[in-house]
Write a structure and sequence with these properties.
Aldehyde Dehydrogenase, Chain A, domain 1; binds nicotinamide-adenine-dinucleotide; globular; seven-stranded mixed sheet; alpha/beta
């Protein structure tokens, strides 16, 4: 089906492609077949130290490069990503497993982010305000911070690194990037584009390897001033704890347990399409995936019947096969975890309406799209992130009850309501406790020029994308220029004179 075999990638440190200092390698496995497709360095703390040193050395000249000039390189990144979109998408369908149209979307997100952040090179707005004293000027401007550590998951192998690396670079920081261990080769392909776009050596560095070794070394390195992390809540907690002792700035984008609410007045055709797309798109492996469906009792039976039919029609297969609706899950451990939740759901009293089984295809990691019915809001399948193609159906008698159920989880990423009633829509917008709210649209589909992130255990209050991404990668420098020629004392001279 494809030509990706026996590939080899290396770390990228100070503008050189180098193996791990230990000489160790780790394999990258194609989830649709279980076959090894290539290898990357299994790096350790020494490699991280070398990369941080290169990034630190490059920081001095990069921070002094005018932001519009930094932006010009990012415009070239955007154009190269456009040229390579199909090639990268096909490779993503192999190394990560998502279906080709979604893989194209993943790369498109990086293209959009590259154009947006390149444009920021000519903005990076600060604020100018009036002084309380005469002949004195004050303003606040964004200053770069230093070396940024970027740690990413496998589910958006190009898009998520782009959300972090591009804003970090436009602000004038240098970066050490550790991609997920399941998609390290896509991480390397992304870095190659920056090299080709003319980014100076050392400004962006790549170190592949296990999270507990390479990720942790990056978090603990004293010269890494910012950590931008996307992954599970469990790993995020470890990262935040380790970084806290050094008072590092940490941005965390973590798990979700998102819901779609369908009211009795909803357009059910539209809601059905959105539920299928949100629950089973990317095989349910999106942080914004819908994993709870809260149905108004009046439409529950009709909607469930239609949903069962639509779910049964979904075709499993390789991401490159145009017939495939749902690709594999990422690896064998994920498959075991997902299947364990089917057992847990049944033990708790839920019914499996469709799926609930591993799909054997001779080596790949596939799970049948699964519907759990009769789920109570407190069941583990309604509270914990499964990160697979599994949807729990919960019944509610009113919008108020449905919102309460929606908000009853530890996470707070994305919530969606289907209704034709504008009053109900505004009530939900006000009362949903998540960072993202959708009306008459599923839980997935964020745009790069709007803030992205969640509340509660989904993160620590930072937001990615848009202008808000700049807050993670810059610090405010406040400047006072007194051109009065005399010592003017703020708070004292102004008030004494009055
Ligand atoms: P993960 O936490 O296992 O790994 C994420 C990254 O962190 C990987 O690169 C991993 O190697 C590294 N890592 C693991 N332990 C580490 C440690 N102790 N120190 C430093 N680095 C460490 O997550 P995953 O399985 O790759 O991704 C799935 C998770 O990511 C899900 O929970 C999903 O909801 C979440 N996610 C969140 C968002 C968001 O924006 N909120 C987006 C996508 C995915």
């Amino acid at each position: 089906m494809h030509e990706y075999r026996n590939l080899e990638y290396r770390n990228y440190i100070g503008g050189q492609w180098v193996p791990a200092q230990s000489g160790e390698w780790m394999e990258s496995i194609e989830p649709a077949t279980g076959q090894v497709i290539g290898r990357v360095p299994k790096s350790g703390p020494d490699d991280v130290a070398a990369a941080v040193e290169a990034a630190k050395a490059a920081f001095e000249s990069w921070r002094l490069t005018p932001a519009p000039k930094r932006g010009e390189i990012l415009f070239r990144v955007a154009r190269l990503l456009e040229e390579r979109k199909e090639e990268l998408a096909r490779f993503m369908a192999v190394e990560m497993g998502k279906v080709l149209p979604e893989a194209r979307g993943d790369v498109q997100e990086a293209i959009d982010m590259a154009y947006y952040m390149a444009g920021e090179g000519r903005r990076l707005f600060g604020k100018t305000v009036h002084s309380e004293l005469p002949n004195k000027s004050c303003w606040s401007e964004r200053a770069p911070i230093g070396v940024v550590g970027v740690i990413t998951p496998w589910n958006f192998p190009i898009a998520i690194p782009s959300w972090k690396i591009l804003p970090a670079l436009i602000c004038g920081n240098t970066v050490v990037f550790k991609p997920a261990s399941d998609t390290p080769m896509l991480g390397a392909e992304f870095v190659k584009i920056f090299e080709e776009a003319g980014l100076p050596p050392g400004v962006l560095n790549l170190v592949t390897g296990p999270g507990g070794r390479v990720g942790q070394a990056l978090v603990e390195h004293p010269d890494v001033k910012v950590i931008s992390f996307t992954g599970s809540t469990e790993s995020g907690r470890q990262v935040a704890t380790a970084a806290a002792t050094q008072l590092k700035k940490v941005a965390l984008e973590l798990g979700g347990k998102n819901a779609i609410l369908v009211m009795d007045d909803a357009n059910l055709d539209l809601a059905l399409e959105a539920v299928i797309w949100s629950a089973f798109g990317t095989t349910g492996q999106r942080c914004t995936a819908c994993s709870r469906l809260i149905l108004h009792r009046a439409i529950k039976d009709e909607f469930t019947e239609r949903l069962v039919e639509a779910t049964r029609r979904l075709k499993l297969g390789h991401g490159l096969d145009p017939e495939t609706d749902v690709g594999p899950v990422i690896n064998a451990a994920a498959l075991r975890k997902i299947h364990a939740y089917t057992g847990i759901a049944q033990q708790e009293g839920a019914t499996v309406l469709v799926g609930g089984r591993v799909w054997e295809n001779g080596g790949g990691f596939f799970y049948e799209p699964t519907l759990f019915d009769g789920v109570a809001p407190h069941f583990r399948v309604a509270q914990e992130e499964i990160f697979g193609p599994c949807l729990s159906i919960i019944t509610a008698d009113s919008l108020e009850e449905a919102i309460k159920i929606n908000n009853s989880v530890a996470y707070g990423l994305s919530s969606s309501l289907f209704t034709q009633d504008v009053n109900r829509a505004f009530q939900a917008i006000r009362d949903f406790s998540s960072g993202l709210v959708y009306i008459n649209h599923g839980t997935i589909g964020a745009e790069t020029h709007l803030p992205f992130g969640g509340t509660n255990d989904t993160g620590n209050g930072t937001r990615e994308a848009a202008w808000t991404a700049l807050d993670t990668f810059s610090e405010w420098k406040t400047v006072y220029v007194d051109w009065s020629g005399r010592l003017q004392r703020a708070q004292i001279d102004t008030h004494d004179e009055a």
